Amino acid sequence: MIVRRYASVAVLMCSAAAAVSAQSALSPECALQPNAVRDACQKGLDIFAIMAPQVNGAIAGGGAVLGSARAVRGMSIGLRINAVDGRVPDLSAIRLSTTGVVASTIPTKRAPIPAPTLDVAVGLFPGFPLGLQRVLSLEALVNVAYLPNRDLEDFSIKTKKGSLRLGYGGRVGLLSDRFVVPAVAVSFFRRAMPTATFSTTFASNIAGVATQDSINLADLSIETDAYRLSISKKLGFIEIGGGVGQDRYRTTSIIRATVTPSIALPTVTSAVGLSQSVKRNAAYGSFAINISKLRIAAEAGATFADDSVRTYNTFTDGKLNERRLFGSVGLRVGF
Fold first, then answer.
1. Can you give 204-243 as a three-state secondary structure string?
2. Measured between alpha carbons, how far is 297 from 329 in angstroms, rounded to an integer?
3. What is the distance between the alpha carbons of residues 286 and 182, in angstroms, rounded to a whole number?
4. CA 20 to 30 Å from 278, out of 105, 205, 211, 265?
5. What sign does the dihedral 160-247-140-76 (CA atoms) show?
6. β-pair type (150-152, 105-106)
7. Residues 1-39: tens digit of each pLDDT
8. pLDDT at 204 over 70
């Protein structure tokens, strides 16, 4: 149940995470809010900030085509699960102040942050012959992201325009896998999550009376651009490879915080518009087993800082910009 609880937190952050700009002092947006909701506003921003590089790393994953840089002939469909070795805030320990901002130390727990992915690659051009090589092959890439409407313990997820959203991209093969020369390719992949509202509540107590405060992200939209330089070499039915690249995350949303300052006063609500762009670097290795048209593959790698993230509140792991390990496993079928 503990793992499930923190995995649920990860699902909430799975797009909410990127919705805050880097900061070390009280954010100007929260400073302009009514005093009763400033702490809720700031803690909401900081919690999402720590999750940003982790969740987006899970969405982007490693290679554009799992386990291979070789050109696709015809069409290839793959189902994989990416996961980041995450550090997730423990929301049960948070108490919101209604008398102003309080700099808190928020505990975190280690938990995997998963992101299932369905990818399709279609070969558009096999490349030009160049001696024993074939260069500049071209493939179209399509991604299908899924986000269900769900209530997960303390969290609620409600999509706005359906639970599916398409992503797209392309890959150019620079070299083909011939003789001692490995396959080398460059790719771009834009993945997007369905627009949704993510909500969570926090228990509070005023003069012995239990109340509930809340934070939600409305109309949250997240896009991840993944640039990759990948390489692989097939040795019999085994294929080994890897790659490097950069991820760019863009997020827009409206964060709403609602608190009860006292029994005698009505609840107070604030709304802050958010927009953020964050970059992260990535490096990974891959291993695959090819059996006829079927490929079973795995990747392992890490995302590491480019842009820095800073927060007003602190977290028990204290390492907002540290390297985060990720892995991927999946199947691909060629047609």
1. EEECCEEEEEEEEEEEEEEEEEEEEEEEEEEECCEEEEEE
2. 6
3. 14
4. 105
5. negative
6. unpaired
7. 433 433 443 444 443 443 444 445 788 888 888 888 888
8. no
